[in-house]
Prior knowledge:
Layout: H1 3-12, E1 17-22, H2 25-33, E2 39-41, H3 43-51, H4 61-73, E3 79-82, H5 90-102, E4 107-111, H6 130-147, E5 152-157, H7 160-163, H8 165-177, E6 182-185, H9 191-200, E7 205-208, H10 220-226, E8 230-233, H11 238-253, H12 257-262, H13 267-273, H14 276-286
Parallel strand pairs: 1-2, 1-8, 2-3, 3-4, 4-5, 5-6, 6-7, 7-8
Amino acid sequence: xxxxxxxxxxxxxxxxxxxxxxxxALSALLIENAGFKLMGTxxxxxxxxxxxxxxxxxxxxxxxxERARNLINSVSIPVDVDADTGYGNALxxxxxxxxxxxxxxxxIRIEDQTWPKRCGHMSGKSIISKNEMVSKxxxxxxxxxxxxxxxxxxxxxxxxxxxGIDKTIERAMAYAxxxxxxxxVECPQSLEEVKQLVMRIEIPLAFNLIPGGKTxxxxxxxxxxxxxxxxxxxxxxxxxxxxxMSNALQALKNGDLEKVGELGINWSEFNVLMGGxxxxxxxxxxxxxxxxxx
Length: 294
């Protein structure tokens, strides 16, 4: 079964679906090994890890596509890709959808910010018109239909911080009517708002939780109880990794190699994670292992 169909099945089953986000092949492997059935990509995490800059539209579509390709190829679970705004108008969104289909993304999500966009938890955002976003959704559906695939299309709105909750609901309902498979609302401010969104939007509702971000850290069980279907955790890999690396480097600076070892996994564990046993078996099968000379 194609990964996009597996993604759709998850959205159709009862209960909340968690979307831990990775930013490279290693973080993707760790997510899969932890037992998650689905993962996403984080645009901010990719920007930070690839170019060392914040999520301000500074990294190009080509760079993001290549990172997604490597990440998707490293795991067997479906990957739902953060595709920013689609990188322009409806034609760009059409081309973006095509390219992500070609690298086997299970889903992609675009947002109604202007380009260049910024992280949804930052100030200073601006958004396009509702009709322009509807056109982008239609363009992505056209691309999906032409490819004969089942790509899951998510539509995100950043209107809450700009137009308020009523306009956010209006946009969300329009995006659902346009054919989006799920609606992602950036930064709802209370459980009451979340309840309104669940009641008014007839397709799966999604949003994200970021420690220190602008959305309160609601209880996952409470969100599931009130009907939230899809919850993204964008920084679950990046923030702990950044802290662990910082701590290890500080230990090294202090000359404490034992502490450095304690903060990470060891050589053998890492080679298991990387699939070293499989590659040794292939060496034996194909006779490519190094032979002693003489």
